[in-house]
Design a protein that fits this description.
5 strands, 3-stranded antiparallel sheet, globular, PH-domain like, alpha+beta
Length: 87
Amino acid sequence: MQSFEQQFLIPNPYSPIPIKYVMIKVTRLDGKKYYVNPHQIECIEIQPDTVLVMLSGKTHIVREQVDDVLNDIETYRRRLNPYVVQE
């Protein structure tokens, strides 16, 4: 069985956009890396750990600091629309 990264990060001739361009990479507290859709993040809670609250109500506790997650989301959105004017 292929890993998630092997299955989705290897260029797919049937998919015009690789997954790294439609999701952001985060790390669980146990060190496991995975991807989340930034469009599904409702809010980010700042507790001792960073908690991503999804639109579904599910929560993800991640190692990344809030600023890092926000920078990843900003980078993701700039990839979607590279013509956005920077402030």
